[in-house]
Amino acid sequence: MSDKDSGLDKKSARAADLMGFYQAFSDRANPLEPGDSYYVPIFENDPEKDPILNLKTRIFYEASESVNLLTGFRGNGKSTQLRRLKTLLEQDGCKVFLINMLDVMLMTKPMELSDLILSMMAAFSDEIKDETGMDVVRRGYWERTREFLNSNIKSDGITFSAGPEEFSAEMKLGLQRDASFKEKIQAHLRGQLTTLVKDAYDFVVKVIDTLRKQSENPNLKVVLLVDSLEQIRGYYGNAAEVQKSVSETLSGQANNLAFPQLHIVYTIPPFLSTLAPNLSRQFGGNPITYWPNIHVKTKEGGADDGGIAIMRAILEKRYGRWNDFFDEKHIRRLAQASGGDLRDFFRLIREGVIALSNNGAEKVTEDILARIEQQLLNECLPIANDDARWLAQIHAVKSASLESIGEVERLARFQDSNLIMNYQNGKPWCDIHPLIVKEVQKLGSSQKPDDKR
Question: Which residues does residue 226 pair with via DSSP β-bridges, in sequence order?
């Protein structure tokens, strides 16, 4: 083989390696199951501080039915941890169902109890359809629901298919994608919620009775995990309206969201605790479970070696030859730059791989790291001066204080964009994204609150 051919082979092999590295950190990956080869334990080695283990034990100890609330930011691993919770409960003999509300609910419009209940029952119905003996139970529920809706929605151009399976599919699709359909359902059912809720309760009880008879276990514990409900959010024009609807539905209708004989876990958006203080009291008193970002830094601002080791372990699981392209000190830097957010960490890794592919360097350099960090920072800007002052204050005191309840929209906006990050070392605390700290401090000090504009 000629030197030229050998060089081409090495170049092709390196390109293949870089592509494999890049694809291992795709942000489009599904949530991981506990046994997945990519899965890395986070709190499992410290059971006392493990939020999911505490939640599992709480459910296991409950006698008849219960409601628990789980919160955390998008992309920080909640869905993966819900799958871990499912496995832990199943190991304890529970029957567990997990539903994804993104499949059945439009997340950019205000919610009401009517569309929330219908969306949940549609998803739950799909989850149980492969269980023995559920055909009659499912058909009965959807036939009653169809008759109920037909008797209450007589206009607005809404028609429903005769078959229960077709009707269920139409309901799912309409509630997930059609804002007009969702609004019409809400409008027509505002005075009919008692019947809607009772039918859902009866459906759940019949499902549980059937499962217990089949298992020959009259005490079988049935659990429903409701994932992605925390992702409901508005856009700039209706964010406050959506947030208010979430508070009114989950807080004001809490008694209607506790189902007989069912243990249920709802994921809730982080802003809800501000709009509805002591919310868990409305659902029976179980404390809200917080799933924080990985602790890559201490509250005082120093590096947390334990959290950085977890980030490195995640990297190692996904691509064992990472140190062919990154030095250890560079991984520490990117872990800290991400603030412990996995999506940002993965993105920074991927952009480092792209830079290597394009410039031909053997390994990532300090200059490359600076460029990819700046690229992520650029997408967080611009930040208004008044927002910068507020964010600088959060960074200083590690708490998001609000002048009024009207500022919840701003809090939710920055939480959703990952510019405010939650941590927990005993007591929950928060900080701003590490990459915006200098910019926020510069902007925040450039203009005083009483300056004339």
Answer: 99, 266
What is the Cα 28 distance to its own chain's centre?
14
pLDDT digits (tens, 9 = 90+) for 297-310: 999 989 999 999 99
On whether the pTM is more than 0.90, the answer is yes
* CA–CA gap between residue 114 and residue 124 (Å, rounded): 15
Q: Which residues of 82-97 are buried (b: 16+ CB within 10 A; e: fewer)?
A: bbbbbebbeeeebbbb
For residue range 144-161, list pLDDT tens digits in order: 998 888 887 765 667 777
Tokens of 7: 């060089």
Distance CA 11, CA 211 (A): 58
Strand partners, 229: none
CA-CA distance, 268 to 133, in Å (whole number)? Answer: 33
Per-position DSSP letters for 291-334, written without gaps between them: -PPP--B-TTS-B-HHHHHHHHHHHHHH-TTGGGT--HHHHHHH
- CA atoms of 69 and 193, how far apart (whole Å): 23
Token couple for 321:
């030859």
Judge contact between 288 and 69, C-beta under 8 A: yes
Q: Which amino acid is at 275?
A: L
